[in-house]
Specification:
This protein has a single domain, classed as NAD(P)-binding Rossmann-like Domain (Rossmann fold, 3-Layer(aba) Sandwich), CATH 3.40.50. The chain has eight helices and seven strands; from the N terminus they run βαβαβαβαβααβααβ. Strands 3-2-1-4-5-6-7 form a seven-stranded parallel beta sheet, with helices on both faces.
């Protein structure tokens, strides 16, 4: 992976930052697309191999501008990890706020689509690429009182499978991971009742560590993952039923 360029959305913290750290250890130059004010500081701490670019993934024009800046400043990305996302409020479907619904779908699903769409042509030009979309176990099983999040992540799984089949004849692998909850800042958006519910569903009896997620994601994004595409890799601590 030495010398490759990776885009990590949501790289300022959480799973995204853990992925960025591990990619740098593998010799990859990492560009974090994020709107988090901490993005500059996070990338500055990556031994000169991290670059911060402000990007709102829910806005196609912002994604396209970030891509052009990445190519100009660092190089054409051949690794893309879509980690940016939000949880949204906890509420029943009948009480779910419409604006909140649209915001969750715009960031989690539309944002992933925009990033995939924008980065694929460059991978084709290089004859190589690895895309890892971060979905969620909620996208497979559905969490109550989290309909927008569950639906958005189910959409990410479907998008991944579709794009993986489209690019299967090339050395471009498109896969996703479906992690159980990890204790990151996304918990700030959830009620304690919902956090307790998620923990109760994990047979291992604990939350996912971001370093554990990073190890799987970086392998999926490596040349070693040369056959699997359109796949769904579980990080659910035993929760997944299919």
């Amino acid at each position: 992976m030495e010398g490759q360029v990776a885009v990590v959305t949501g790289g300022a913290q959480g799973i995204g930052f853990a992925v960025a750290q591990l990619l740098v250890k593998r010799g990859v130059r990492v560009v974090s697309w994020d709107i988090d004010p901490a993005n500059d500081a996070a990338m500055a701490g990556l031994n000169g191999k991290g670059t911060a670019i402000e990007c709102n993934i829910a806005d196609l024009a912002s994604v396209q501008a970030a891509y052009l800046a990445t190519c100009d400043q660092v190089g054409v990305p051949t690794i893309v990890v879509n980690s940016a996302g939000i949880a949204g409020p906890n509420a029943t479907v009948e009480d779910y706020d419409i604006d909140a619904w649209h915001k969750v779908i715009d960031i989690n699903l539309n944002g992933t689509f925009y990033v995939n769409k924008t980065c694929v042509p460059g991978m084709k030009s290089q004859g190589y690429g690895r895309i890892v979309n971060v979905a969620s176990i909620a996208g497979k099983e559905g969490n109550p009182n989290a309909s927008a999040y569950s639906a958005s992540k189910a959409g990410v799984i479907g998008l991944t499978k579709s794009l993986g089949k489209e690019l299967a004849g090339l050395d471009i692998a498109v896969n996703c991971v479906t992690p159980a909850a990890a204790r990151t800042r996304i918990f700030d958006q959830m009620s304690q009742e919902h956090i307790d519910y998620m923990l109760s569903k994990i047979p291992r009896g604990r939350f996912l560590e971001v370093e554990e997620a990073a190890k799987m994601i970086v392998w999926i994004a490596s040349p070693e993952n040369s056959f699997t595409t359109g796949g769904v890799f579980d990080l659910s601590g035993g929760r997944a039923t299919y």
